C-alpha cells in the first residue's frame, strides 16, 4: 500500500508502466522524477552580524556567510516541499529553484530534529503542475538488492541522477554532520549521495519516492543513507497540521534483548526489550515498571527491538492511559501507564549546546545520558555501568583532563552514579565547593577504571 503525501494533494501522475521500466528504467525514472526535485539555497542566521572592532573603536559588520545548498521534493500543488532539517535549520533566507529554473522564496512550516525532517512552503499563489508533484511509494516494501535512483544537487550540480541498490535497511548511525536524529531506521544504498543531495528523493524503478537522502560516509565509496518515506511522510503530515511533532514519553531506557539476556530473564530472544533503567518519577516508574523487566508490548503493539520500542512509545498520545505488557521473573503481566509528552531533544552542535544547556547540565562541561538511550548508544554502545558522556564542552575542565565522548562516569566523590538523576543530584550538591571533585571513569573501549580530579571553572 502506497504512503500518501502530506495533506491534500493534487492527483499526480501514476507509477511507471512495466514497459517503461523494461525499455529504459533509469531514463524513465529520471524523466519522471526530475520535475519534482528542487534545489534549495539557504543563508544561515548568525548570532551576531556585527562585532566590536577594538582597533577601529567601532562596530564592524561581518562578511555574510556563503549560501549552503540542499535538495527537496515537492509534495503538493500549493507549494509544500519536503527536505532535511539540517538543510534549513537556522536559515535566515531560503530560496528554492524548480526544475524549469523558476525561483521562489520559501518559509519554514515546521522542523523535526529528531528525524531530521523539515517542511517548507513556497511563497507563491501560483499552483504547481501535476508533473511537479512527487508520488510517494512504500518504503516498508523495499527489499535489499532492489534498484533505486537518487536525485539531488550534489556540490551545486542541479538534479544529478545516480543509481544503485538497497544495500541494507534499518541502519543506525552514530554521528551525522549537521545533527544526529534520535529516531533512525535508515535505508542504506550504494547510489552516489554527496553534499547537496540532502533532502532529495530516493526512488524505486516506478518513479515513486521511497526515501529522503540524508547522509553519506566520506571515508566509504557507495555508502549513503536515506530516511524511509513512511517515516518522513508521517512527520511531514504532522508538521503541516501543527508545525511540530508530538511524541509520547514513557521513561524507560531500553536495551536490546540479546540471546544471553533473554535466557537470563526467561524471555524469548528477539521478542521485547530489556528495561535497563527506569527514570524516577516517569510514567513507567509511576506505572510500576522496574529495572530488569522485559517489555513485550506497548499499547497492544508487539515490541521486537529498541528501534521498534522507541517508535511505539513515540506514537502514543500524551495523557492516554496505556497498557504495557511485560515479563517479570518469567511471569507475563500487564501494567498501566499514563503517557507524557516527550521532552525536546538536547542540542547537537557546539553553539546550541553552549547556549541551550543549563549550568547544571553542563556541570564540569559535560552532558551525560543514561545507558540504553539512543544518544548513549551512539557514543558508546558497550557501556554496562554508569552514565555515558555525550558532549564535552571545548575548554572545559573535563576536556582538559581527557574525558571524551563515550566515556562512562561511574562514581562522583565515592557515590555510585547509575542514572542521569544520580549525576545531576551530585552535581547540585557539589557545585561551588571550591576544591577538586574526584570522579571515577572508564574510558571508552577500555576495561580498567581511572580516577580524575575535576575543578570547576568560573
TrEMBL record:
This is PDZ domain-containing protein. The keyword Hydrolase applies. SMART domains: PDZ. One of its GO terms (biological process) is proteolysis. Residues 246-306, 364-445 form the PDZ domain. Keywords: Hydrolase, Protease. The keyword Hydrolase applies. One of its GO terms (molecular function) is serine-type endopeptidase activity. InterPro entries: PDZ, PDZ_6, PDZ_sf, Peptidase_S1_PA, Peptidase_S1C. Belongs to the peptidase S1C family. It comes from Handelsmanbacteria sp. (strain RIFCSPLOWO2_12_FULL_64_10). It comes from the Bacteria.
Amino acid at each position: 500500500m502506497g504512503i500518501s503525501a502530506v495533506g491534500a494533494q493534487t492527483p499526480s501522475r501514476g507509477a511507471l508502466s512495466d514497459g517503461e521500466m523494461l525499455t529504459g528504467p533509469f531514463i524513465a525514472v529520471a524523466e519522471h522524477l526530475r520535475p519534482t526535485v528542487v534545489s534549495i539555497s539557504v543563508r544561515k542566521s548568525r548570532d551576531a552580524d556585527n562585532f566590536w572592532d577594538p582597533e577601529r573603536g567601532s562596530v564592524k559588520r561581518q562578511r555574510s556567510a556563503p549560501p549552503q545548498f540542499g535538495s527537496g521534493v515537492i509534495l503538493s500543488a500549493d507549494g509544500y516541499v519536503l527536505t532535511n532539517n539540517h538543510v534549513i535549520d537556522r536559515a535566515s533566507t531560503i530560496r528554492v529553484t524548480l526544475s524549469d529554473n523558476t525561483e521562489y522564496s520559501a518559509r519554514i512550516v515546521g522542523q523535526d530534529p529528531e528525524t531530521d525532517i523539515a517542511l517548507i512552503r513556497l511563497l507563491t499563489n501560483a499552483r504547481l503542475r501535476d508533473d511537479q508533484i512527487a508520488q510517494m511509494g512504500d518504503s516498508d516494501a523495499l527489499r535489499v538488492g532492489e534498484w533505486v535512483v537518487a536525485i539531488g544537487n550534489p556540490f551545486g550540480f542541479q538534479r544529478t541522477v545516480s543509481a544503485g541498490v538497497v544495500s541494507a535497511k534499518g541502519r543506525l548511525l552514530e554521528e551525522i554532520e549537521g545533527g544526529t536524529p534520535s529516531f533512525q531506521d535508515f535505508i542504506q544504498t550504494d547510489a552516489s549521495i554527496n553534499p547537496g543531495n540532502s533532502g532529495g528523493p530516493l526512488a524505486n524503478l516506478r518513479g515513486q519516492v521511497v526515501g529522503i537522502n540524508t547522509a553519506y560516509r566520506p571515508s566509504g565509496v557507495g555508502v549513503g543513507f536515506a530516511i524511509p518515506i513512511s517515516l518522513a511522510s508521517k512527520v511531514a503530515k504532522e508538521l503541516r497540521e501543527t508545525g511540530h511533532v508530538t511524541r509520547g514519553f514513557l521513561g524507560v531506557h531500553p536495551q536490546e534483548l540479546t540471546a544471553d539476556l533473554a535466557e537470563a530473564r526467561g524471555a524469548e530472544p528477539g521478542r521485547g526489550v530489556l528495561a535497563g533503567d527506569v527514570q524516577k518519577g516517569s510514567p513507567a516508574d509511576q506505572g510500576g515498571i522496574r529495572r530488569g523487566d522485559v517489555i513485550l508490548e506497548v499499547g497492544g503493539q508487539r515490541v521486537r527491538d529498541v528501534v521498534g520500542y522507541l517508535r511505539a512509545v513515540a506514537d502514543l498520545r500524551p495523557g492516554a492511559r496505556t497498557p504495557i505488557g511485560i515479563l517479570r521473573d518469567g511471569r507475563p503481566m500487564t501494567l498501566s501507564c499514563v503517557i507524557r509528552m516527550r521532552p525536546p531533544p538536547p542540542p547537537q552542535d557546539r553553539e546550541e549546546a553552549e547556549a541551550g544547556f543549563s549550568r547544571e547540565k553542563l556541570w564540569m562541561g559535560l552532558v551525560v545520558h543514561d545507558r540504553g538511550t539512543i544518544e548513549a548508544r551512539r557514543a558508546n554502545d558497550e557501556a554496562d555501568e554508569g552514565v555515558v558522556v555525550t558532549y564535552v564542552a571545548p575548554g572545559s575542565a573535563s576536556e582538559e583532563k581527557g574525558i571524551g565522548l563515550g566515556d562512562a562516569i561511574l562514581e562522583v566523590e565515592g557515590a555510585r552514579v547509575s542514572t542521569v538523576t544520580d549525576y545531576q543530584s551530585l552535581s547540585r550538591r557539589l557545585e561551588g565547593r571550591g576544591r577538586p571533585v574526584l570522579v571515577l571513569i572508564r574510558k571508552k573501549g577500555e576495561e580498567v577504571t581511572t580516577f580524575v580530579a575535576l575543578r570547576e571553572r568560573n
